[in-house]
Amino acid sequence: MNSTFESLVDRIRAFSTEEKEELKFILERSLIEEHREQVLKSYRESHDEMKKAKLKFSSNIAQLKKALTES
User: Fold this and answer.
1) 65 phi/psi in degrees, rounded to 5
2) 3-50, pLDDT tens digit by residue?
């Protein structure tokens, strides 16, 4: 860990329980939002690939396994 992060952790440890709970709430919501943004980005990329006919669909298990090993 770098000293800045360690310093931040030390400062947080000095917070009151209420402040720590609020910080926890904020961090959890922030992580949820980041995850949502990642999901949206993946969706948009997949949607663009579908529009450009770059996606391949198949119900054949052998073809699916082959496609997975090629990527």
Assistant:
1) -60, -40
2) 899 999 999 999 999 999 999 999 999 999 999 999 999 999 989 988
Cβ–Cβ < 8 Å for 20, 13 = no
In sequence order, which residues have a C-beta less than 8 Å from that of residue 55 and are 6 or more positions away?
A: 46, 49
The pLDDT score that the predictor gives to residue 20 is: 98
Where does the pLDDT of residue 56 fall: very low under 50, low under 70, confident under 90, or very high at 90 and above? Answer: confident
Q: How many CB atoms lie within 10 A of CB 19?
A: 11
Distances (CA, A) of 69 to 43, 64, 66: 22, 9, 5
Provide the CA 13 distance to its chain's centre, in angstroms: 27
